[in-house]
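Take a specimen:
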Amino acid sequence: MMGIKKNNRPYIVFLFIVGALFIGLYIANSYIGWYGYEKWKPRRNTYGNFEESKTRNVFVKKLPYDKLKQDSLPFDIYIERGFKYGINNSAITRIIDDSNYPYQISHTQRDSLNLISYKISNIEEFDSIFNNFILLDSSILKKKIKIDVQRFDTIIRKWNKINEIIVWDNKR
């Protein structure tokens, strides 16, 4: 009977180890990676990233707003279509059509460089909320939104309100 030559055994063992490693990584990815977390299932938001909203073709319209105190902090707010990521890739956009709330408000959430946060103060007045953003049944905002602009004070470890933003829609 002819067996494996002794000088070929290290190569076969190496190929077996590499193959087992690839299979192990594939299985691990199913539990801890993209497929493990099922990132394509929940509704997504562009969180005030206007360019991403346009690129994904979910942008509907910008909303007018007023700041009580004028400042130079970046802020953007608009209505966009609800969407989910593609099953195999986050760059793919799946528009949500089969929902009672196919639209959503997207606004700047946080400026980590300046420790600034934008928090909707009257969020409980709206019909539907998901992950701290407002869902809409149409592309018209029917109520005004009040957003508190907060700055984190690193000395006393507390968020302090520094401004307020009022948002509305001209087509109410």
User: Anything to note?
Assistant: The mean pLDDT is 88.
